[in-house]
C-alpha cells in the first residue's frame, strides 16, 4: 500500500512539474529545448509511474505468479523511464539505439501494465465468457506489443499494407476485450454476489487476521509507531477475551 501511495504522489508530482514548466515557458514567450526536455521528462515520469502503479497493485495479491508479474511491471517501467532520460537529455547526436530500446521497453511496460490491470479486475464470480474475454485481452496485449516491437528493433524491415490492417484490427479487438469484462460484470451482477454467512469463529478469525495485518504493516521499518502497535495488540486481546471465559 505504501508503494502504491508513493507512486500515486509521484504521478501527481510529474504532472504538476510539467504544468509549471509549460506555464513558465508561455509567460516567457518561447519554448526552447530545455523547456521541452523538462516537460517531456515530467510527463514521462507520470506515465511510467502510472504503469508501475498497476504492477504495485498486483503485488498485493497472494498468488506468487501475480506478485512476480507486478514486480516485473514495476522494474520494466523504471527501465523505460531511464531510457527516456538517456534519449531526451543528451545532445541531438545520441545513438539511435537508445531511441529504439526506449520504444521497445516502453511497449513491454505498457503490455505488462495492461495485463496487471486486467488480472486485478478478475473476480471469482466471473462467468466463463468474462474469463475468456479477460484472457483474450491479455493475450492480444502481448501480441500487439510484440508486433509493434518487431519493426522498432528492425527485426522486420517493411510492413505490408495487409499486415498493418491486421494490426489495426487486433488493436480494436484488444480495446473491445478490455472494455467488455467490467461492463459484463456490472450487467451480470457478479461483483455483487452475496457472500455466504460467516460463523462466529470465522468472524473472529477475520478480525484477528485484519488486526495482525495492520500490525505487520506498521512494524515494517517502524520508527515511533510503538503506541499504535500497542493499541492494536490491546484490540487483539479484547477480541480474544470476548470468546474466552
How many helices? The count is 8
Q: Beta-strand percentage?
A: under 5%
Structural class: mainly alpha
Elements, N to C (H/E) = HHHHHHHH
Radius of gyration: 24 Å
Largest sheet: none
Helix content: over 70%
Shape, principal axes of CA atoms: globular
The overall pLDDT average reads 79
Distance between the termini: 37 Å
Number of strands: 0
Which consecutive residue ranges, at least 5 long each, have pLDDT under 50?
190-195
What does this structure look like?
This protein is mostly helical. Helices cover about 80% and strands about 0% of the residues. The chain is built from eight helices and no strands. The longest helix has 28 residues, at about 160-190.
Helix/strand layout:
Blueprint (H helix, E strand, L loop, with lengths): L1 H27 L4 H26 L5 H25 L7 H25 L7 H25 L8 H28 L11 H20 L6 H16 L4
Brief description of this entry?
The chain has 245 residues and is an all-alpha fold. It has eight helices and no strands. α3 (64-88) runs antiparallel to α4 (96-120).
Question: What attributes characterize this protein structure?
Answer:
mainly alpha; single chain; 245 residues
